[in-house]
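Supplementary Methods, section 5.1.

A reviewer requested that the exact input to the structure prediction be made available. We therefore reproduce it here, unchanged from the version used in the analyses.
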Amino acid sequence: MKWFMRFRLRLQRLNSSIQSYREEFTNIMMKTDEDTRTSWENLLKMAEEALTINEGYHFFKSAYRLGLKALDQNQLEAEARSLHNEAEEKLSSWRKKTVSELITHPVKMENLAEARKILDEHFDNRYFTNDLIKRQIFCWFFYFTVVLLAIFFLILFGFPNSRLPLGKIEQHASINMLLLVFLFGALGGTIFSFLSTTQKSASARIIDQLLTWYVTLIRPLWGGVGALVVYLGLQAGIFQVNLEHEGALVLSISIAAGYAERLATGALENVATLINKNKAKTNTGK
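The structure derived from this sequence is encoded token-by-token as follows.
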């Protein structure tokens, strides 16, 4: 409901901006040639008919830059001062430097339009990455819910109590336990992906955002596999820890393995150290 209200408010703001701008500039645009006026009207029409708000703003900003052709020199100077102040506050790196170089005196319409385009592209990138992060967060929330439901139904119903050999005659693992280990590892991977997404900067490059998105998309699956590897390592005796009756500890380590493999190995080393100390105390009678 809140999402719908925000969308509706943003849409109303876009439509209001287009209407007020058209009312203000319709007479001013009469100073330009017919081709420019036609292009200007078409851009505003496309902004009104755009399927998404970001697309609508893209066309509206294009119409705004085209409308600079109708301004006189004094109006261009005022627009340049406003643009320069906004760029000083909002931009950084090469964009800020380029805008400063383009705004010269006397102000040229072509340079001002290019400077405005650089500023508009900066905001377009920010809005795009913000939307991308929101979609990623929704995706991780969906993954998290699915994994929790899978764990719930597996615990509630489970599979037949069949067991699989793991190398030695006396070593077996139930299918239920393997599935739980995998799901808890996937849960840890999902938590890692969610936290990684929320810590991203909206100012990061779009190509970097997309690349990390595709990589972290498989993180839950990789987390489940990592948890299985750690669990099988326990069963094979790589770590000297007897977890036959420590199901909760196994699942906790599975989450750590899904979140980050280093956490799982560190937890296993700590558990092994504590168990060895307890055994030593028992043997010495202390």
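The chain is about 75% helix and 0% strand. These observations are discussed further in the main text.
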